[in-house]
Amino acid sequence: MTTSTSTAVQRATETAARNGRAAKVIVVIQQKGGAGKSTIAVNTAACAGRSAVTSGADESAGSPVVAAGIDVQGTLEKWCASVREAALPFDYVVTKSKLGILPGIVKDPERRRIIVDTPGFLDIDPDAEWGADPLGESRTADALREVLEVADLAIVPITPSKITWDECEFTIERVLKPRGIPFLVVINMHDPGKDRHEVQLDKVKAWLDERNYPRVADPIRRYTIHEHAYENGTLVTEYKMSGTALNAREDFMRVALTMEQML
Ligand SMILES: Nc1ncnc2c1ncn2[C@@H]1O[C@H](COP(=O)(O)OP(=O)(O)OP(=O)(O)O)[C@@H](O)[C@H]1O
Ligand SMILES: [Mg+2]
Questions:
Q1: Residue whose CA is closest, atom 23 of ligand 1?
Q2: Which member of 4, 139, 207, 255 has the lowest number of beta carbons within 10 Å of its beta carbon?
Q3: Where are the alpha helices (H) located in 20-130, listed in sequence order?
């Protein structure tokens, strides 16, 4: 069998395996650090989990929504562990880059959505040819490859600041497209005060649209309330009632909804 035929067969087998299971895997990925991956993973899981609870899922069983992180530091797990248990509308798993944990959860018929936070990747192979896997060699790179193998959708954050644009493109062109993983770009950190006339926002939207990258129609706005969410152990679904809290929740609900439409 030629390499391309075996790759095609492997892809078809993987697609069949994906179609046969109940759980959909959503990976939040962007090579650049600090674009909002963990914030998006945790809050999208909260929105998806909250709607699963209110739609009458059996609460005695595990939640249909699971969040996981694959980095050794475990940002997502630490965040979830500090949330009051009654306020956590999803389950989470600790992987610390160990292989085999996520593929096991994916097979669990009770699970519907598995949302995976990933670290910014630094261990890129600088000599990787165009078309070759650029993820490099490390424990985290292997964990990332494992989750990409089962991913049904990738969410890629970008910011109005150009600092994340090249990495957004790299992540899509070099990591996601070669693997045939559908993706959805989310603009994060639009500042509704400083960018009142949406000049910066329009620039990033135009850049994405030029490339035909599917995106969530409206951005996640930048609010101070998000900056303290990790240390306070809060989720967007639990913010104390205020205008900002409602706006903030709406932003992540929109991401969760667009994600559902793409699955
Ligand atoms: N919409 C937002 N408004 C305000 N602050 C935000 C927003 N999104 C993210 N942040 C803040 O920006 C910082 C980076 O966000 P986050 O940790 O989610 O990024 P990341 O992509 O997971 O970073 P890393 O690559 O280091 O894991 C955090 O302090 C977070 O609170
Ligand atoms: Mg993170």
A1: 34
A2: 4
A3: 37-54, 75-81, 101-106
